[in-house]
């Protein structure tokens, strides 16, 4: 009897973390999203190159395709809020602002697809979007159909102007309507974030069955304190979040800010490394027409992207935090291998010296590990459990290594 009970418990556990079966987000999705960098700038008269418009989206698609980003895996080009006209059309359908998107959304999707990329769009479950444009409440089915007709590939569904008690009905309904269109549309939800804002707790089982990725914390801003608080939230809820992260469904700590203004190159790489450790979606919000070679190199770092895109899709475990130095480890393929990151969240001092045996980082297999530094690409050779790893982690920086178990 006991055995059967155990088997049942395991079956229940597995089914409780079942994902959304639309075939998408088998690894964390990657792409570009307009929000942090371009916000709700609708002033195309005086700021034509920086306003939310088809021109902006097309130029980002051009850069993604031609500057190596698409080849590295960044495939979704996503419009955030403020693309809409202030009113629905006479058939109650959503329509883009006619001056800023003069050719319409189908045209834009066709253009993005012609570059081998996918188009993401934004709506809101409430009566209005955060920017005050028409929301989807009471129009879920029609809006899903409209997006599918336009050729949309991803929907970011926000939670402003709604009662978060309704999210557990509204988001699954939208997910069902998206499914019914027959078009695979990656579903990016702000459902748990809406609950957080209204002081409600979140149940990630249904979220994972409904959404491919989901936000559950405050928006990232272009400042290391923001990155730090997001990482702290993952540390605090590490065991809970790990249970619900995996192929088909991932927690979304929000946009990547490499190439922005507010963080040093060390801070930018610390953010990238932590997002990769968490198996987070990588949606950069920057201006790809104007980006430093350093930031571009970071965004295209093949070892870092391989850790993020690891097929097992595990979320890293926080092993410890001491004097604002954190140690995170993530299982990666081939089995038994690990990515290891030290994150120094101090914003003073000259850095934390590290001198650790490999086994204290979780590298316990006597066959040893082939270890490579992620940011320098330097190979450290094969380390045994008793080998010592020495380095220094600068303030607001990370040190990241990939450790492949020897066959
Ligand atoms: C709709 O859901 C079914 C059942 O989960 C799934 O097999 C199918 O692939 C989904 N279709 C789309 C377009 O998401
Ligand atoms: C949520 O809690 C915070 C802190 O206790 C409070 O300031 C805020 O007003 C609450 N929000 C809602 C929607 O109840
Ligand atoms: C370790 O990995 C590097 C980079 O992938 C590779 O060039 C090297 O041959 C590997 N070393 C061993 C001993 O397997």
From TrEMBL:
<feature type="signal peptide">
    <location>
        <begin position="1"/>
        <end position="19"/>
    </location>
</feature>
<comment type="similarity">
    <text>Belongs to the glycosyl hydrolase 27 family.</text>
</comment>
<dbReference type="InterPro" id="IPR041233">
    <property type="entry name" value="Melibiase_C"/>
</dbReference>
<dbReference type="Pfam" id="PF16499">
    <property type="entry name" value="Melibiase_2"/>
</dbReference>
<dbReference type="InterPro" id="IPR000111">
    <property type="entry name" value="Glyco_hydro_27/36_CS"/>
</dbReference>
<comment type="subunit">
    <text>Homodimer.</text>
</comment>
<protein>
    <recommendedName>
        <fullName>Alpha-galactosidase</fullName>
        <ecNumber>3.2.1.-</ecNumber>
    </recommendedName>
</protein>
<dbReference type="Pfam" id="PF17801">
    <property type="entry name" value="Melibiase_C"/>
</dbReference>
<keyword id="KW-1015">Disulfide bond</keyword>
<dbReference type="InterPro" id="IPR013780">
    <property type="entry name" value="Glyco_hydro_b"/>
</dbReference>
<keyword id="KW-0378">Hydrolase</keyword>
<feature type="domain" description="Alpha galactosidase C-terminal">
    <location>
        <begin position="323"/>
        <end position="397"/>
    </location>
</feature>
<dbReference type="InterPro" id="IPR017853">
    <property type="entry name" value="GH"/>
</dbReference>
<keyword id="KW-0326">Glycosidase</keyword>
<dbReference type="InterPro" id="IPR013785">
    <property type="entry name" value="Aldolase_TIM"/>
</dbReference>
<dbReference type="InterPro" id="IPR002241">
    <property type="entry name" value="Glyco_hydro_27"/>
</dbReference>
<keyword id="KW-0732">Signal</keyword>
């Amino acid at each position: 009897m006991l055995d059967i009970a155990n088997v049942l418990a395991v079956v229940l556990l597995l089914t409780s973390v079942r994902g959304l079966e639309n075939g998408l987000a088998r690894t964390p999705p990657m792409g570009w999203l307009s929000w942090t960098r371009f916000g709700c700038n609708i002033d195309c008269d005086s700021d034509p190159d920086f306003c939310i418009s088809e021109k902006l989206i097309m130029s980002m698609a051009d850069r993604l395709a031609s500057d190596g980003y698409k080849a590295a895996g960044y495939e979704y080009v996503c419009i955030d809020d403020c693309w809409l006209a202030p009113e629905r059309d006479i058939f109650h359908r959503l329509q883009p602002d006619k001056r800023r998107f003069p050719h319409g959304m189908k045209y834009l999707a066709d253009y993005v697809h012609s570059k081998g990329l996918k188009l993401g769009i934004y709506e809101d479950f409430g009566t209005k979007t955060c920017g005050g444009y028409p929301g989807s409440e009471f129009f879920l089915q029609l809006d899903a159909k409209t997006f599918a007709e336009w050729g949309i590939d991803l929907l970011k569904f926000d939670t402003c102007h709604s009662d978060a008690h309704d999210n557990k009905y509204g988001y699954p309904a939208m997910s069902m309507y998206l499914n019914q269109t027959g078009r695979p549309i990656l579903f990016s939800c702000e459902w748990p974030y809406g609950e957080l804002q209204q002081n409600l707790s979140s149940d990630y089982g249904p979220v994972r069955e409904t959404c491919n990725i989901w936000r559950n914390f405050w928006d990232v801003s272009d400042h290391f304190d923001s990155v730090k608080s997001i990482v702290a939230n993952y540390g605090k809820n590490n065991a809970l979040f790990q249970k619900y992260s995996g192929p088909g469904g991932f927690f979304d700590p929000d946009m990547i800010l490499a190439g922005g203004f507010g963080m040093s190159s060390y801070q930018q790489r610390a953010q990238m490394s932590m997002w990769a450790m968490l198996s987070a979606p990588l949606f950069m919000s920057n201006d790809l027409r104007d980006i430093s070679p350093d930031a571009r190199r970071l965004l295209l770092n093949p070892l870092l992207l391989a850790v993020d895109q690891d097929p097992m899709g595990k979320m890293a475990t926080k092993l410890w935090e001491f004097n604002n130095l954190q140690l995170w480890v993530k299982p990666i393929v081939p089995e038994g291998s690990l990515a290891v990151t030290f994150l120094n969240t101090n914003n003073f001092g000259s850095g934390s010296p590290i001198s650790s045996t490999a086994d204290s980082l979780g590298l316990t297999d006597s066959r040893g590990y082939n270890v490579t530094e992620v940011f320098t690409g330097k190979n450290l050779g094969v380390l045994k459990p008793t080998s010592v790893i020495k380095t220094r982690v600068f303030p607001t920086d990370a040190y990241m290594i990939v450790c492949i178990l020897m066959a």
